[in-house]
Amino acid sequence: MSRVTRDDKYYMTLVTLQVEDCLFRVPRHTLVSQSKFFREMFLVPPPKGSEPEGTSDEHPICVQGIKKGDFKRLMKVLFASPLSWGNMQPPPVFEEWFPVIQLSKLWEFDDVHKFAIHEVPYASVQKEPAEKVALAFQYDIEPWLLPALNELAQRPEPINKDDVELLGLEVALKVAAVRESLTVAQNSDRYNPLRIVAGSRDAGRVDFSSRIKEIFKMSGLSGPMFF
Q1: Are 15 and 26 in contact (CB under 8 A)?
Q2: 10 Å Cβ neighbour count for 166?
Q3: For the chain, what are the domain ranges?
Q4: What totals of helices (H) and strands (E) does the chain contain, helices first?
């Protein structure tokens, strides 16, 4: 009888993680191949003479500061076949997808991060304009940035202290600059500069996109997020 061998690809090592009071046991290969964070973590050797974390229920990798429900949402997307991603039943609300965006950004699951962003329509995000801008910058949600900045520029109320605390002084000043001057179309492709006074005003129908891209140095409709 020939010697039985383990397949080099489909004989998988499992790893145990504890999130709150719940244990998860998942293929280590998927974590390593999809996440720079986990790939580098598993390169760190365990202390001499100790059992490596994650090898059993008694010695799990303890994940701190994360809710088990949020972790489970991430695992649901991560372990779905890429072929089935397009057929996944989307969660009904933004709050169901946001943990996936947040954790995939935190742990550098780049493909999952891109997929989750694609699955969340901007119109479904029930947040204040400044919050949307902050989320777009913090979690690299590039498709949200231009509409969120445009919505904030259209807001009747001026930029305030809360906005500065949320966005940082540099971003807040750039949004203020967008609000103070703009270019609008008038019945043709010709553009005329109009001045809008600071403070409360009706700019709900004004499209600030061109001015936003100029001030924030965006190269296109979904240009890079740098300033």
Answers
A1: yes
A2: 15
A3: 13-43+53-120, 136-227
A4: 10, 5
Q: Cα(52)–Cα(31) distance, rounded to whole angstroms?
A: 16
**Cα end-to-end distance, the chain, whole Å:** 67
Closest residue by Cα to residue 78 from 35, 131, 125: 35
Contact indicator for 95, 125 with CB cutoff of 8 Å: no
Please count the other Cβ atoms lying within 10 Å of the Cβ belonging to residue 207: 15
pLDDT (tens digit per residue) in 187-226 = 344 444 444 444 445 566 788 998 999 999 875 443 334 3
| Strand segments (E) across the chain | 14-19, 22-27, 61-63, 181-185, 191-195
Measured in whole angstroms, the distance separating CA 186 from the mean position of its chain's CA atoms is: 37
Per-residue pLDDT tens for 81-137?
665 555 555 555 788 889 999 999 999 999 999 999 988 888 888 899 999 999 999
Residue 47: enclosing H or E segment and its boundaries?
Answer: none
Tokens (6 digits) for 121: 């329509």
| The pLDDT value given to residue 193 | 44
Range 13-43+53-120 classified under CATH 3.30.710.10:
yes
> 88 with 97: CB under 8 angstroms?
no
What proportion of the chain, given as a percentage, has pLDDT over 70?
79
Record the tokens describing residue 145, joined without a space.
């940035």
Specify whether the CB–CB gap between 201 and 181 falls below 8 A. no
pTM to 2 decimal places: 0.76
Count CA within 13 A, CB hemisphere, residue 41: 19
